[in-house]
Write a structure and sequence with these properties.
single chain, alpha/beta, OB fold (Dihydrolipoamide Acetyltransferase, E2P), 8-stranded mixed sheet, 7-stranded mixed sheet, disordered N terminus, disordered C terminus, binds adenosine-5'-diphosphate, binds magnesium ion
């Protein structure tokens, strides 16, 4: 799989974020009806210019072409009706601590009761005789009734073309700005400024989508976004703006690649096998077919000129570390130095440990730079050829002689900018980033669009299956009895809690508290803890004890989430499991099943809320990381999946990377970044 040469840049006269026209960029006070006061309210919604107002996407639309008759409303079916208030008042309960405000609406066909709990001030807003529109879901038919509906007052001075007998926009609002006013302002702005929307090169967006449906012009789209003729027109308008956003992203990716292409004069790091051969011979196992294939892809990329930019995806336990080691050896054979960056000190020192064990017999020095620790870099004569470390590696003081290869483990923990900072320490070094987080295809296209992707889609042979169980906290005694039986068989166990310290506000399980409980439950087995707030030396000692088998049980926060490798561990118990995302649980589960023993992951949920247990059952039901990543994205959004550090995450106003997958692909194809679709593997076909 080699990268085809980039196709020429499409002639983009104006990029997607085109030159603003003056009127479009004028302060929102240019719109009729917006004075300083309303401008201040709009500012709260992030609206400063005319253009901001016109691209303020409605939350939804309401079809007011034919309002329903109150007589015909149905239970649980959302409906809009219009009528006159014929009665209104507040009732108080519980010593005036609770209230309900109610009005009754009559439209000539029937009556509708509208109620609000504990908002008594509404009595000052609505009076008998007022004409109002009401939107909501009836929760009773006898009497006909809606609780907490959305309402809108019909004023005699209103322009009926704006608010009635059409599909109207319902915008996101802020206190002090009613839906009616907002709609009127947008209407006024459209009348005067819709035609001022900056034009785009029509060739970029094209006349029609891949499915043949024509695109509205930008001017038409901004009108349809708010006041469409049909609901489908509003949807199409949103799609157009979403498509523009995706094009923008893809163009940025393409620019980055072309920059690299133009400047880079990278040295070859293909190597000559003289180190890899003895390394593989001493490894104790044979590479899987997937590892061999990926290494071939990597070697093809590491030639002179254009540097490698490759993402290696592989589920937990698929053997990425060995691939990283072989890649490092290729560079070392070619006389280049190597930097390896990991997200935590524990992982960095573990990686350094592997590399030392593997490389020192070959006469290669491996240094470690993590937190305040520097090992092997004493400056005496020749420095190490391989530096392993945390983000401490990107600090200014760190210099590399001949940095030819950068390897980043668990990429999702770092932002793109950190990655680039390290890369800048060399002269366009080759780059390999590794992640165990399966990135759903559509996210991969945008987040990692500038990387070629390799997938380790095969686990080493002889792996034991991991059985996942969901248990209530009441079953904990049985869980500990089971853990004890594993310990007695000579195995080891992890116990994971979401927190370090207990909080008085909830009963989320915390490491410091559980340590005592677990010690009591598993006596006389030794139990130690690790978490991110410990003295690193104490923490490393505990980790080491666990790795060497002297400590059979480790109580930990998710610091052990990524990469820790102790093949003798056969059980992981995750407490307060309902608080973790699916992708994270999958990572945690991957800490076991690495040796020859059948392994177990026990998810203990405090509370059997339906939604939480549903999620836990999803993870119990599959070990397919891609499936879980997609589910997580649907359930919890991209932040969860990609970790706290979202610096790589584009902020989109109209687009939705998951729901608009087809548009993402279409944008990619139009911009034609030099990534052919075959290089971005499908989640399942890999
Ligand atoms: P990850 O992809 O999660 O980083 P590791 O690189 O930590 O996985 O590998 C997990 C375990 O599998 C390690 O103990 C490693 O030595 C072992 N391993 C890697 N490749 C193979 C292989 N081809 N055959 C057998 N064991 C392997
Ligand atoms: Mg790893």
């Amino acid at each position: 799989m080699t990268t085809p040469p980039l196709s020429p840049v499409p002639t983009v006269a104006s990029p997607v974020s085109s030159a603003p026209t003056a009127a479009w960029d004028a302060p929102v006070t240019s719109v009729r009806g917006v004075g300083p006061e309303r401008a201040a309210l709009l500012e709260r919604l992030g609206i400063r210019t005319v253009g901001d107002l016109l691209l303020h996407q409605p939350r939804r639309h309401e079809d007011r072409r034919k309002l329903a008759a109150i007589r015909d409303v149905e239970l649980g079916v959302p409906v809009t009706v219009a009528g006159t208030i014929v009665a209104a008042g507040v009732k108080w309960f519980k010593m005036r601590t609770r209230s309900v405000f109610e009005f009754i609406l009559d439209d000539g066909t029937g009556r509708l009761h509208c109620r609000w709990w504990n908002v008594p001030q509404l009595a000052r807003v609505y009076a008998v005789g007022d004409r109002v529109l009401v939107f909501g879901k009836p929760n009773s038919l006898r009497p006909r009734q809606i609780d907490h509906p959305e309402t809108e007052r019909l004023e005699s001075e209103d322009d009926p073309r704006v608010h009635l007998n059409r599909i109207v926009p319902i915008h996101g609002l802020t206190e002090g700005l009613s839906g009616r006013v907002m709609r009127t302002l947008v209407w006024n702005a459209l009348a005067e400024f819709a035609a001022c929307i900056p034009p785009l090169d029509p060739d970029l967006v094209g006349a029609a989508g891949a499915d043949g449906r024509p695109w509205p012009t930008r001017e038409q789209a901004v009108r349809d976004l708010h006041f469409p003729t049909e609901l489908a027109d509003a949807q199409r308008a949103r799609e157009r703006f979403a498509f523009e956003e995706f094009l923008d992203l893809q163009l940025a990716i393409q620019r980055r690649r072309q920059n690299l292409e133009a400047k880079a004069k990278t040295d070859s790091c293909r190597g000559d096998n003289r180190m890899i051969r003895p390394f593989l011979a001493g490894l104790g196992f044979r590479l899987t077919a997937a590892q061999t294939r990926v290494l071939r892809e990597i070697r093809a990329d590491m030639g002179p000129g254009r540097p490698m930019r490759r993402l290696l995806q592989g589920d937990v336990g698929s053997g990425k570390t060995v691939v990283a080691a072989c890649t490092a050896l290729m560079a070392l054979e070619s006389g280049a130095d190597v930097a390896v960056m990991a997200p935590t000190e524990i992982l960095a020192s573990q990686l350094a440990g592997h590399f030392r064990r593997w490389f020192e017999p070959l006469g290669i020095r491996v240094g470690l730079r993590a937190g305040g620790r520097v090992e092997g870099g004493d400056g005496a004569g020749q420095g190490p050829a391989v530096w392993v470390g945390t983000h401490a590696l990107i600090q200014d003081a760190v210099e590399f002689q001949r940095l030819g290869l950068v390897i980043i483990d668990e990429q999702h923990k770092f932002g793109v900018s950190q990655r680039e900072q390290l890369v800048r320490k060399g002269n366009f070094p080759h780059l390999l980033v590794m992640t165990a987080t399966p990135i759903p295809r559509t996210l991969g296209l945008t987040l990692y669009g500038d990387l070629d992707i390799s997938v380790l889609d095969q686990l080493p042979e002889g792996r034991q299956s991991i059985r996942t169980h969901v248990r209530d906290e009441s079953a904990l005694p049985k869980v500990w009895a089971f853990v004890r039986s594993e310990l007695e068989a000579g195995r080891q166990a992890y116990v994971v809690c979401p927190r370090v310290e207990e909080s008085e506000h909830d009963d989320v399980r915390a490491v410091t508290k559980e340590l005592k409980r677990v010690r009591a439950a598993l006596e006389p087995f030794a139990v130690e803890m690790v978490h991110g707030q410990m003295d690193p030396a104490v923490r490393d000692a505990a980790m080491l004890g666990f790795r060497d088998g002297r400590v059979p049980v480790l109580v930990a926060t998710p610091v052990i989430e990524v990469g820790v490798d102790v093949p003798n561990a056969s059980v992981i118990v995750i407490l307060s499991a309902e608080l973790f995302g699916l992708a994270q649980l999958h990572q945690l589960r991957g800490r076991v099943g690495r040796g020859t023993a059948a392994s177990h992951c026990i998810l203990v949920a405090r509370e059997t809320r339906a939604e939480a247990t549903d999620r836990l059952n999803v993870i119990a039901g599959t070990t397919d990381g891609f499936e879980l990543a997609e589910a997580d994205l649907r359930l919890r959004g991209p932040g969860e999946l990609l970790g706290q550090n979202q610096s790589g995450m584009p902020s989109l106003r109209f687009g939705d990377l998951l729901a608009d997958a087809a548009l993402v692909r279409e944008a990619r194809d139009r911009v034609r970044v030099g990534v052919s679709s075959s290089q971005v593997p499908d989640a399942r076909s890999g």
